[in-house]
């Protein structure tokens, strides 16, 4: 069954009520990343290249638990849809436990191994030194990042996205202040450079976790927060949903680390520009992630009500609403392109290097955004295995080999690599649309 009717005012309001706080919170997070990039960029190309590579290593280090966010969201949304709100926080408790068990040993291991790992990935010694100092600080917060993602999944599932947004904004204001103080040595703090950037981010993550616990004790005790742990069967269900998403996140982050290595073989200047391009792109796709999380909640709750037709329709309704935002973002990257890049790159030659790759991002953002919405909707209805196979396969079997061929082997630059990225993301979006249209996901039991 295909729904071609216009989105009603009521459904549009439901979509925006869920999506806008998520987008606002995530936008603040990535604006923070851009502010960090701008600050680190003042330290030189080596610092920018080193932090760019290590940022994805930091994401890789927590990816195994960030995937639990979609599992927490899917399970909590089903409970809410089925009228069992009393147990909706049980999956959150399980997600927090996974973050704790995973985070302690991994933080210790990576702190000691930071320097040799970064040195193996960056041929430039100065960039490697700067990156290692940043990475050592970021791994201190792995536990807190994992917990924060579990809270994000829960707040999204129960429709309390405003709590998520407010907490993120507080975290990011603190982060900007600490990074400014610790990178450059202001307000009596020592000037720690890239190490200060990592330390400021780690401290803000810890503070954010404390705020989330406080809010959950106020708003989620009646839903079982810290009162009922998942049973063995419930924990198995959480892991069954979360592990494919976690594996995808690990390989996705690993894929970007490989992409940075590939671009590093082309040149340090290209690597510095790629760091800026990726951070801008992450901001541009945030509406896709925000609308996608709204689709995951709405479709998951509809399945909890045993209404698969409504679950199917929600993803397309969310895509229609989100498309307007994606078109606007695309135009912003197509017109004032040089002005956007100049915010982060002081060297005019580096700006010119990034102009057409950024325009390609603007051209492809509509299709990529809809693909992200459908991907999150599939995670929300429990189809994490399908999402993992498609996402990992397209990135590792299609895009990365093509990027290596175009870059180090054939000697092409960033433009051809970014063109290949556009093709890969469009193909992935098409596959997700086909999977959603087939509707086999409506029979998944979680």
TrEMBL record:
Its topology with respect to the membrane?
A: Multi-pass membrane protein
Q: Where in the cell is it found?
A: Cell inner membrane
The record ties this protein, via InterPro entries, to: MATE_fam, MATE_MdtK, MdtK-like
Q: Which domain of life is it from?
A: Bacteria
Question: For this UniProt entry, which segments traverse the membrane?
Answer: 15-35, 47-75, 96-122, 134-151, 163-184, 196-217, 238-264, 276-300, 321-346, 358-379, 386-405, 417-436
Where's it mainly located? membrane
Which CDD domains is this protein grouped with?
MATE_like_7
Protein name (record): Multidrug-efflux transporter
- Please give the organism: Oceanococcus atlanticus
